[in-house]
């Protein structure tokens, strides 16, 4: 069947393996000895080609809960279980997940493989900090138990390793005790990027923080934005909140999203939010997963799909680097409607994890003529400032850019060649980046 990532680019014909059990999956890998290459796939919410290959192995069969340890505040479940599934189980018991992405439709395996970060990275780090152990099926079908103390190098290569060390079968994650899943939110309007970053820095103590940036604003308004700060309420909801979603039934003509419509949308949104410069209490879902409200919103970009360009630039040159990028983007006339700025805290030791202490900006671009040359120019700015691009969003980064910015790639590859010398696990992305 034809298969894509969330950005719907690229699009390839792929054979999807759906094992019926762990034993049958192990048998498959034991018997085939090498080719063809395959890559694990969870919910397909990575934007680019990290979960794409001519053959993919779906983790959907790993959808069981194994145990909830209320004494140690942890849960063990199959890697195909989603954030939504986990929240349904843990919220009524007074728990929450430490690190959540912008959609709840992400599998546990995908969250570990991308070592995802949330709106609280500056305070709590990324997802894998809360993974105490995992079971990994290797290329020969063997299962290895990995943690910070058992097979620690394989653990560091698998956390953030984009599925290239094997199939994560299950994992134990620690949970956060919360008094409520109602969220107290404050929105602050900022006239430009410097003001925006000032608000974020001044509110570093805030549990969650994220800024929505208008990428079409120019000159003195460059980086015009709304900063959203939030905390869990002391009291309020402690229930899972089911919500009906709207849906985009088919691909929209890409003309639907043009500079004119996007510009109006951004200005109206900015002015509306500017007026609400104070606290409000909201349920956790609209705060954490605003885009989940519209299922298949990725169809809005038309049949050619879109690319998300997410980079991080270290703190020391973040103001300069992010300004240069915003300037280039606003001058290009390809300004995205969605762009999200986050401050990230310290990185970790996992070889391919994305976060480092600095500012990360994520921008969606319709896949259209002359986009790739623009993105290559942005790559140069990111590299010049010592930054890197996020693998979970990437569909086009060059091997050169990858190897210059992910400085531990050779350490990763040394572990990979020990556990998977014949590259049984390989994706379109890993081949493009020269990892397989
Ligand atoms: C609307 C939206 C908002 C998002 N917001 C954020 C955000 O705020 N922060 C953030 O960090 N990310 C964010 N993401 C990206 C998303 O969290 C990651 O791409 C995540 O990896 C997707 O998980 P998945 O289950 O869909 O994995 P897939 O897309 O299916 O796979 C992603 C990678 O994980 C590997 N993988 C999947 N399952 C396994 C397994 N069982 N064993 C080994 N490897 C596996 C795949 O091989 C692939 O390399 C967002 C995505 C969307 C669509």
Strand-helix topology:
Blueprint: E1 2-4, E2 11-13, E3 15-17, H1 22-32, E4 39-41, E5 55-58, E6 65-69, E7 74-78, H2 83-90, E8 95-97, H3 108-113, H4 121-124, E9 131-137, E10 143-147, H5 152-158, E11 167-177, E12 182-190, H6 193-202, E13 208-213, E14 225-232, E15 246-247, H7 259-275, E16 279-283, H8 284-288, E17 294-295, E18 306-314, H9 315-332, E19 339-344, E20 358-366, H10 371-384, E21 388-389, H11 399-405, H12 409-419, H13 428-432
Parallel strand pairs: 3-5, 4-5, 15-17
Antiparallel strand pairs: 1-2, 6-7, 7-11, 8-11, 9-10, 9-11, 12-14, 12-16, 13-14, 13-19, 18-20, 18-21, 19-20
Helix pairs in contact: 5-12, 9-10
Bound molecules: flavin-adenine dinucleotide (FAD).
Flavin-adenine dinucleotide (FAD) binds near residues 42, 45, 106, 162 and 168.
Task: Give a written overview of the molecule.
- The chain has 436 residues and is α+β, with helices and mostly antiparallel strands.
- It folds into two domains: 60-178, 2-Layer Sandwich (Uridine Diphospho-n-acetylenolpyruvylglucosamine Reductase, domain 3); 182-396, Alpha-Beta Plaits, CATH 3.30.70.
- The protein contains 13 helices and 21 strands.
- The protein has helices at residues 22-32, 83-90, 108-113, 121-124, 152-158, 193-202, 259-275, 284-288, 315-332, 371-384, 399-405, 409-419, 428-432, and strands at residues 2-4, 11-13, 15-17, 39-41, 55-58, 65-69, 74-78, 95-97, 131-137, 143-147, 167-177, 182-190, 208-213, 225-232, 246-247, 279-283, 294-295, 306-314, 339-344, 358-366, 388-389.
- The chain has an eight-stranded antiparallel sheet with strand order 16-12-14-13-19-20-18-21. Strands 6, 7, 8, 9, 10 and 11 form a six-stranded antiparallel sheet that branches.
- Strand 9 (131-137) and strand 10 form a beta hairpin.
- Helix 5 (152-158) packs across helix 12 (409-419) and helix 9 runs antiparallel to helix 10 (371-384).
- It is globular and about 65 Å long.
- The relative contact order is 0.16.
- The model has no long low-confidence stretch (mean pLDDT 92).
- The structure holds flavin-adenine dinucleotide.
- Flavin-adenine dinucleotide binds at residues 6, 39-46, 50-51, 59, 79, 101-103, 106-107, 109-111, 113-114, 116-118, 162-163, 167-168, 291, 392, 427.
């Amino acid at each position: 069947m034809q298969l894509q990532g969330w950005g719907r680019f690229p699009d390839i014909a792929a054979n999807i393996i759906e094992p019926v059990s762990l034993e049958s999956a192990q048998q498959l890998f034991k018997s085939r000895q090498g080719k063809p290459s395959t890559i694990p796939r969870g919910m397909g919410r990575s934007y680019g080609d990290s979960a794409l290959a001519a053959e993919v192995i779906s983790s959907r069969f790993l959808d069981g809960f194994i145990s909830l340890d209320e004494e140690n505040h942890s849960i063990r479940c199959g890697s195909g279980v989603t954030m939504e599934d986990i929240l349904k189980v843990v919220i009524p018991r007074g728990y929450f997940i430490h690190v959540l992405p912008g959609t709840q439709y992400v599998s546990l395996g995908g969250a570990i493989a991308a070592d995802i970060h949330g709106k609280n990275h500056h305070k709590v780090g990324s997802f894998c900090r809360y993974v105490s152990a995992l079971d990994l099926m290797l290329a020969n079908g063997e299962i290895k138990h990995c943690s910070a103390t058992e097979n620690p190098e394989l653990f560091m290569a698998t956390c953030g390793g984009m599925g290239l060390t094997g199939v994560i079968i299950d994992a134990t994650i620690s949970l956060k005790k919360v008094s409520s899943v109602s969220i107290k939110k404050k929105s602050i309007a900022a006239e430009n990027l410097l003001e925006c970053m000032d608000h974020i820095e001044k509110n570093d103590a805030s549990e969650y923080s994220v800024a929505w940036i208008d990428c079409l604003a120019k000159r003195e308004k460059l980086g015009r934005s709304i900063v959203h700060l939030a905390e869990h309420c002391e009291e309020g909801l402690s229930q899972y909140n089911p919500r009906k979603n709207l849906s985009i039934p088919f691909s929209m003509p890409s003309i639907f999203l043009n500079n004119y419509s996007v510009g109006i949308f951004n200005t109206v949104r900015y002015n509306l939010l500017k007026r609400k410069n104070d606290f409000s209490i909201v349920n956790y879902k609209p705060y954490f997963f605003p885009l989940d409200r519209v299922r298949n919103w990725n169809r809005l970009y038309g049949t050619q799909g879109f690319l998300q360009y997410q980079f991080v630039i270290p703190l020391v040159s973040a103001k300069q680097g992010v300004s240069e990028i915003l300037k280039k983007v606003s001058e290009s006339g390809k300004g995205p409607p969605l762009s999200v700025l986050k401050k990230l805290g310290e990185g970790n030791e996992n070889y391919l994890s994305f976060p480092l202490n600095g500012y990360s900006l994520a921008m969606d671009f319709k896949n259209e003529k002359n986009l790739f040359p623009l993105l290559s120019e942005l790559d140069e700015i990111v590299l010049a400032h010592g930054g890197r691009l996020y693998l979970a969003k990437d569909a086009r980064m060059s091997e050169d850019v990858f190897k210059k910015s992910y400085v531990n790639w050779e350490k990763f590859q040394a572990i990979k060649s020990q556990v998977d010398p014949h590259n049984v696990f390989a994706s379109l992305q890993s081949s493009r980046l020269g990892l397989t």
